[in-house]
Each structure stands twice: as structure tokens, then as C-alpha cells.
Write a structure and sequence with these properties.
Shape: elongated
Helix content: 25-40%
Oligomer: single chain
Strand content: 25-35%
Radius of gyration: 24 Å
Largest sheet: 9 strands, mixed
CATH class of the domain at 128-229: Alpha Beta
Length: 239
């Protein structure tokens, strides 16, 4: 780093105790280096394409619901394109949108497409939301449970920024019902275990049950459910 500082003609770092911090010049160098490496990667992909090969890195950012079925799709994709490395980022909807706004990935999978971003989307899969409960819950054998009755029981919800939570909030607003939220958990898997432990009811994507069934958790027959929202795949309109 000292040689690089000498080459540039100004310090690119300074020491604070045992810590090394980049100066403004150092940050500029680091940013330029990242751009150079990215351009090299882009050139490598273009050259491989000219050779008739499909190679490089495919960056995907998906909401947590998609992680249950996307690996199967990626398995087939990787067999067809063995020279492509896949980087998969799993986040909630809010974080996926933030990465989309910064154009950090090649493709995005989420629900509720943002209206303020120029993006091409295609429907990818249906996302059915269902009400789940402990298997011994008093509502377990009931049919066509009303939303009014459901609102008397404690609910475990996903965090704000989650696409599942957004769907639930929009549904409740349309139906004029308020759920009794008692707990917030940032993980579908953790919510399933919490429901199995009789900590409350919840509303989850059917994919979380179909691809990771947990003993002790059942689906309830509730009016208005399953509530279906499309999951879409999207890519920005890059210049």
C-alpha cells in the first residue's frame, strides 16, 4: 500500500492505533479498482460468448419465499450452463427492492412489483398464503372460519419490509379486519416452529409448508384463504 501511495503521490490510508483506514484518495482508488475488475468480468463473458460459450456470473436476489422452490429451477439451469456461476442472495422484499434500486444483481424475484422503477417483469410462480395453527388448536377441525373469529387469537407475523406481511396488511385492509399481532419473527422457518410450540397462529406462503413440512403445524380453513399473490421475476432496463 505504501508503494501505491508513492505512485499516486498522496496517502491512501492512515493508521489509528492498530486500525488502518482509507483516506478519500484511498476510497477513490478502491472504487476505481472495483470498476476495473467488473469491466474485466464483463469482457470475459463477452469473449466467452464469442467462442460460443455461456460463462460468467449470474447474480440473483430473491425474497425468502422463493428459496423453497428456486433451487430446483437453478439445478436444471446449472446443468444446461455449467460454465455459469450463480450467486444467490436471499432477503426480505424491502432489501430486494433496495438492491434493485442500486442495480446490484441480474435478476430479482419478489411480490408486489414497485411502480417507481423501470423494470421488465414476468410472472414466475403463484404464492398462496394460508393460515396455519398448532395441530391441536381448537380451530383445527372447524370449517370456513370467519375473519372476525380469527382476529381473537394471537398471531405471529413477519417483519415490516417482508412481502408476506405486505400482502397480509393489504388483505386485512380490504376486509376491514385487524389481527392480534403478538410476536414478530424475521424467518418463515422460525415462525413454523413458534406455531408448532403453540405461541400463536400465523399466515405463511404455502411454499414454506410444501417444501419444508413441519409436524405439529396444520392449515386452517379460513374464509378468504388461500390468498394468492404472484411472484414475479424482473430485470432492470440497463442502458
Amino acid at each position: 500500500m505504501k508503494n501505491l501511495s508513492d505512485l499516486i503521490g498522496m496517502p491512501i490510508y492512515h493508521k489509528r492505533g492498530k486500525q488502518i483506514e482509507l483516506t478519500d484518495a484511498g476510497l477513490a482508488v478502491a472504487k476505481s479498482a472495483q470498476a476495473i475488475f467488473q469491466n474485466i468480468d464483463n469482457l470475459r463473458v463477452e469473449l466467452n460468448d464469442l467462442k460460443g460459450l455461456k460463462a460468467g456470473v449470474l447474480k440473483l436476489c430473491v425474497v425468502s419465499t422463493a428459496k423453497y422452490f428456486l433451487p430446483k429451477v437453478l439445478g436444471e439451469f446449472c446443468k444446461l450452463h455449467p460454465l455459469i456461476d450463480v450467486h444467490l442472495k436471499i432477503s426480505n422484499r424491502k432489501e430486494v427492492i433496495e438492491r434493485l434500486e442500486q442495480d446490484m444483481d441480474d435478476f430479482y424475484f419478489f411480490s408486489h412489483c414497485p411502480q417507481n422503477i423501470d423494470i421488465d417483469t414476468l410472472p414466475f410462480a403463484d404464492n398462496e398464503l394460508v393460515v396455519v395453527a398448532p395441530e391441536r388448536h381448537e380451530l383445527a377441525l372447524q370449517e370456513r372460519i370467519s375473519l372476525a373469529r380469527l382476529s381473537h387469537y394471537p398471531f405471529i407475523m413477519r417483519e415490516r419490509g417482508s412481502g408476506t406481511r405486505l400482502s397480509i396488511e393489504q388483505f386485512c385492509q380490504r376486509e376491514g379486519v385487524t389481527l392480534n399481532e403478538k410476536m414478530t419473527i424475521e424467518s418463515n422457518e422460525a415462525i413454523k416452529y413458534a406455531v408448532a410450540a403453540d405461541l400463536g397462529l400465523s399466515i405463511l406462503s404455502r411454499h414454506t409448508l410444501d417444501y419444508g413440512d413441519l409436524p405439529g403445524v396444520i392449515k386452517l380453513d379460513v374464509e378468504g384463504f388461500p390468498n394468492t399473490q404472484p411472484l414475479v421475476s424482473g430485470a432492470t432496463n440497463r442502458a
